[in-house]
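Please, structure for the following, as tokens.
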Amino acid sequence: MIAGLEIHQQIDTKEKLFCNCPTNLSDKYDHRIERKLRATLSEIGKKDIAAEYETLKDKKYIYEYSKDYSCLVELDEEPPHLINIEALKFGILISTFFNMYIPKVLQVMRKIVVDGSNTSGFQRTLLLSLNGELKYRDKKISIQTICIEEDAARKIEEGEDYIIYRLDRLGIPLIEISTGPDLRDPKEVKEVAEYIGLILRLTGKVKRGLGTIRQDVNISIEGGEKVEIKGVQNLKIMDKVCELEVKRQERMLEWKKIMNERGIDGYELVE
């Protein structure tokens, strides 16, 4: 097994990443807007395939919000403000701990989001540092990148042709820590995730509670494809999740071998 981690942790700042709104979650809302996704041309004149596919679904995205925790930035009606310096300093602190390279010029980028969880249709992400390492037992785990990015809106309800989001979580600063593919068994994955989480908590600068930290695990086995398991929140079951994914991939390879031996094409089997 070869695995790597992507850890997303909310930073405990008073204000959101690109505006002055507070970072507290709330069940209160007094306004609603409805929108639909429309794929547009990128800077190089092409449309994102995933965005075009989602456009065809004609889903309605309903956003609940209150002026107590959101402004025109969250509604994508105003350009983002300057980046939150408190969140940026925290990212530099963690980057220094992992002995990472921080470029002299930092540029906020856009990641396309097609599920409606960002009103703008993309997530703002700052690539902060690269090429660090974490000492774990008798080996070194590479820390490939650290990013500072905005959290997505909180999903409240989903139907066949609509999704309801609340904008209280949208824009809360996140730190994303990505390891290299250096983990070799489920136990290592769980322990390294726990260790990085402990480092973040010891700073006293991260939020606590369900949903404030989310782990994505990238797993592959020899002969298989890399699979990303997103949003693992419970560390207690992380090793089990990895074990089950390895077994699933092993069975897929067994079926592939049997079909090759019998001269059966995968498409023929589906038919």
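The first strand starts at residue 2 and ends at 10. The two ends are 32 Å apart (CA to CA).
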